[in-house]
C-alpha cells in the first residue's frame, strides 16, 4: 500500500559554503533564496521577450531570390559531378551499361579503426561469431560488408543509390571499393559490377 505522505528526496547542489539542499519533490517547500532567484529569472526572461532584437541578431531583410534557368542548374550539376573524377584514387570506369566512378582503398590489417586494428577482427572467437551470425559456416575472410548512400529515405521509385561501398578482407589487407553514380544513369552502370 502506498504511503499518503509525499516522498521527498534531497540532494546537495553546489559545494563548499554555497552548498544548498534542494528537494526533487515539486510539492515540498522550496528555500526562499532559491524561490527569489527563480522569480528574478522569470521576470528577466519576460522582459527580454517583449523587447525587439537589436544589433546583429535583429532580423535582416532577406534578398529576393533571382530565378535560375534549368540549363544553368544542369551545367553546374555536370561540372560538380565531373569534379569527383579528379579526387585522389578515383577512376572512371566504362561498363557495357555506361560510365561510373570507382575508388579502391586498401588498408593493411594493422590499420587501427578506433582502438581496434582491422586484423583483430579475424582473431575473434570463431564459435561466438558463428553463433551471432546464426551460421555454422560464417567466416570474416569470406564476408562482404555493404553500405549504401541514397538520395532519400522514402524508398521506392525516385530514390537513387549514388554511392555503394563494399568492403572485404583480401589477403593481408581490408579492401574498400566505392562505386559513385554521378547521375541516375550511372547507377545502372555500376550495379552489375558489384
Structure in a nutshell:
The protein has 194 residues and is of the alpha+beta class.
How would you describe this structure in keywords?
194 residues, alpha+beta, five-stranded antiparallel beta sheet, two-stranded antiparallel sheet, 5 helices, 27% strand, disordered N terminus
How would you sum up this structure, described in words?
The protein is an alpha+beta fold and 194 residues long. It has a domain of 109 residues. Helices cover 28% and strands 27% of the residues. It is built from 5 helices and 9 strands, in the order E-E-H-H-E-E-E-E-H-H-E-E-E-H. The strands form 3 sheets. It has a 5-stranded antiparallel β-sheet with strand order 3-4-9-8-7. Strands 1-2 form a two-stranded antiparallel ribbon. Strands 5-6 form a two-stranded antiparallel ribbon. A hairpin with a 2-residue loop joins strand 3 and strand 4. The radius of gyration is 30 Å and the shape is extended. The termini are far apart.
Rg over alpha carbons: 30 Å
Report the strand count. 9
Strand order of the largest sheet: 3-4-9-8-7
State the share of residues found in helices, binned by percent. Answer: 25-40%
Mean pLDDT: 74
| N-to-C order of helices and strands | EEHHEEEEHHEEEH
pLDDT < 50 runs, ≥5 residues = 1-20
The shape is extended
**What characterizes the major β-sheet?**
5 strands, antiparallel
* First and last CA, distance: 65 Å
Percent of sequence in beta strands: 25-35%
Tally of helical runs: 5
Briefly note the structural class of the backbone. alpha+beta
